[in-house]
Specification:
This protein has helices spanning 14-26, 32-42, 102-126, 130-186, 189-196, 203-229, 233-253, 257-282, and strands at 11-12, 44-47, 49-64, 67-71, 79-82, 89-90, 95-99, 285-287, 292-297, 310-314, 319-325, 337-342, 349-357, 362-364, 367-376, 388-405, 410-411, 417-419, 465-467, 470-476, 479-491, 494-499, 506-510. It has 540 residues and is α+β, with helices and mostly antiparallel strands. The radius of gyration is 64 Å and the shape is rod-shaped.
């Protein structure tokens, strides 16, 4: 991963102050202006420019589609046809390949028939057919009539039994009477003679007994026959038929809850079986789930379907995933603009924006990186998947600002420096006017700084300004003046500044210190001070 960070290079003015002290002790007093001019002449300068500064983060990745899937057959089988080739553009719903579906189609047809039959069963359970109800009602009425007839017949058998068995009682009484008459005659001595002969006048007694015995035997037989015929099986059979007819009618008109639940469960089972059969049949066809480009075809007619038969990529929205170091990820925000170049397509610059920042980083060899997805803008470039891309994420941007080389920015020492001074003195050995003793850098301790002829060339106002923080040295017509600035965004070797500057000003970025010797060891910087004033150079 390539990265580019911004640097802020701070220059320190203490070196220049020390150099001024050396010049003060070593330079002839009469050459004060010449020494200052030499300082300005030896300085390297640069122009204040108006530009746009942007923090950037650079990284690399490759072009990835919005979606990429490997499509497989849902059901095993022999491939009938692969209808696409590598690189084909397809639409959502297009058939890409098929396998033999003869057996699975038959199973769908069978499941469909079973489902239809179960629907009829369920419908007849919860809402019976009128004709079926009428038929059940007629069957119930017939069974009821048969049962009533059986009850009547059974009742008649009881009456006949009573009649027949009551005749047996009468026959028994008559037999007993006849037997008694015969026994009385048999006990009479005189009458015995007749019993042994032709009965004579007592034949009627014997005949009566014989007839009574025959009548009794007939009555016993008739009673027994009547008892044998008295059977309730017909009645019980008629009753069972009646109960069955009633149950059938009740089930049609008001089926039990259990039966309704059972019918509903059977119907649902039939529906699920049909859906499973349809799903198995659909698995014999690969259909494009979205518009895309075929990137791989791994099947051919006559072979078994593979687990990744066809690979399809959605090219409608391309993106690039790049890694950003944890030290820079805080500056990356969704929506930031991104510029990309491609190794395979020189001269083409793509644009995009940060779409997503992975909330979890990845650690590799102790380095933490975060995945950042860059969504590419629409382009007519002939883009191909997996092309290497060089991404530049454009972060904080300041437009139309003044900027100077970072090496031109200096920082005053703690408590600041007094860049004061007077009118730079008059004649040789003169004292400065205004300010406090001509500034922090002057002659010897408690001494009077010696001004050069015409005064020093770091002139300022009547009263010196104490510089705090950052400043630059502005060079105009051989004169160098400190100007306090506020530092802004730094990018590369440029830093944004605001202050009493304008575009095109020359600022000192480095100086060369030269030691001078002479007979006069008067003040180092003409005018009794190192840097006078705080404003802009005179005449600017």
């Amino acid at each position: 991963m390539k990265k580019k960070r911004t640097w802020l290079i701070i220059g320190v003015v203490v070196v220049l102050i020390a150099a001024g002290g050396v010049l003060f002790l070593t330079r002839p007093a009469a050459s004060g202006r010449t020494g200052a001019n030499q300082l300005a002449a030896n300085a390297q300068t640069a122009k204040v420019t108006r530009t746009t500064l942007s923090n950037i983060i650079q990284s690399t990745g490759s072009i990835i589609p919005a979606n990429k899937v490997a499509l497989s057959f849902g059901s095993p089988g022999t491939v009938l046809q692969a209808k696409v080739a590598l690189g084909d553009h397809v639409k959502q719903g297009d058939v890409l390949a098929t396998v033999d579906a003869t057996d699975l189609q038959l199973k769908v047809d069978q499941a469909q028939q079973s489902y239809l039959l179960q629907q009829l069963t369920y419908s007849s359970t919860v809402q019976p057919d009128a004709a079926s109800v009428a038929q059940a009602q007629a069957a119930y009425a017939s069974a009821l009539a048969s049962y009533n007839a059986a009850r009547v017949a059974y009742g008649n058998l009881n009456v006949n039994l009573t009649s027949q068995c009551s005749s047996l009682t009468t026959a028994q009484t008559n037999l007993d009477q006849a037997q008694a008459n015969y026994d009385r005659l048999a006990n009479d001595h005189q009458a015995k003679n007749y019993l042994a002969a032709d009965w004579g006048p007592f034949r009627a007694v014997v005949t009566q007994l014989t007839n009574a015995q025959s009548a009794y035997d007939l009555a016993v037989a008739n009673c027994n026959i009547t008892k044998t015929g008295l059977n309730d099986s017909s009645l019980r059979s008629a009753q069972a038929q009646l109960q069955s007819a009633k149950s059938n009618l009740d089930n049609l008109v008001s089926p039990r809850v259990e039966k309704q639940i059972q019918a509903a469960a059977q119907l649902e089972q039939a529906r699920l079986s049909l859906e499973q059969a349809k799903q198995n049949l659909a698995g014999t066809t690969i259909i494009a789930p979205f518009d895309g480009v075929v990137t791989a075809v791994n099947v051919q007619a006559g072979a078994a379907g593979s687990s990744a038969a066809i690979v399809l990529a959605d090219m409608s929205q391309l993106h690039v995933n790049v890694l950003v170091d944890e030290t820079e990820i805080a500056t990356v925000k969704a929506g930031q603009k991104v510029e990309l170049t491609l190794d395979g397509l020189t001269g083409i610059t793509l644009t995009g924006q940060v779409a997503f920042i992975d909330p979890a980083g990845t650690v590799s060899q102790g380095v933490v990186n975060y995945n950042v997805r860059v969504k590419l803008d629409a382009s007519d470039a002939p883009l191909l998947l997996d092309m290497s891309a060089n991404a530049t994420i454009i972060g904080e941007t300041h437009e139309n600002v003044l900027a100077v080389p970072s090496s031109a920015i200096r920082t005053a020492g703690q408590g600041g420096g007094n860049f004061g001074g007077g009118n730079s003195g008059g004649g040789q050995g003169g004292t400065p006017t205004g300010g406090q003793s001509g500034g922090n850098i002057g002659g010897g301790q408690g001494g009077t700084p010696t001004g050069g002829q015409g005064g020093g060339n770091f002139n300022g106002g009547q009263n010196g300004a104490r510089i705090q923080g950052s400043f630059v040295l502005v060079s105009v017509n051989g004169q160098t003046t400190p100007v306090q600035v506020t530092v802004g965004l730094s990018v590369g070797d440029l830093t944004e500044v605001t202050g009493d500057l304008k575009e095109g000003d020359s600022v000192v970025i480095s100086t060369v210190t030269r030691t001078q010797t002479g007979t006069n060891a008067g003040g180092g910087f003409p005018g009794g001070g190192a840097f006078f004033g705080g404003g802009r150079p005179p005449g600017d």
